[in-house]
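[job 4417] fold queue: 2 targets
>>> target A
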Amino acid sequence: IVRLLREEGAIPFIRSSCSQVLLGLENSNHIWGDAKNPWNKLRTTGGTSGGEAGLIAARCSPLGVGSDFDGSIRIPALWCGV
């Protein structure tokens, strides 16, 4: 995906966190830490693509790439208000 985006002129500038098992209701990563909800740091961003949703909700990035299996995009979008 990154190669295709670069070919179209995109400039990747940040990476987000994703769950290590790529399945779950919260974004927990033992290497990079948990993704925090930008509106309430005591809450998670939700789902495996939660890091991406948190960055977009906090306006750190105008666009994100993720996948949706079992709500992996829908849950973070809802929990982060995207």
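>>> target B
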Amino acid sequence: KRSEKRAIYANLLAEGVLVVKNEWTEKHPELSIDNLHCYVIARSMASREHLLHIFNWGYHYYRLTPKGLDWIKEQFGITDKVIPKTYKIARRATKDRGDRDGGRGGDRDDRRRGGRGRRRGTC
């Protein structure tokens, strides 16, 4: 039981999220731990506000909160160098947009926008 908790904590520390299927007889695919044990441990952490819980379409989604991150680091005795994947900022390569005018280009610049609208001056 203690080793299962540590495996779940380590996964949360690395990934920042935990997904548990609402099928208690199966094992968690990444952790090889019963789904019921994963659910009970995650529910306990959620009650202490270490995780945010969302249930949707037969899956329990848990996301690590900053309070939970500090708590897990304290449990493992880790410094601030370890950051979960969900806390890292993804850097995307910016594409060169060329000579476009604010993203609007081509032959559509001089066309009128909108539909027929309200006709003015006619009765």
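[job 4417] complete. Note on B: The CA atoms of residues 14 and 84 lie 5 Å apart.
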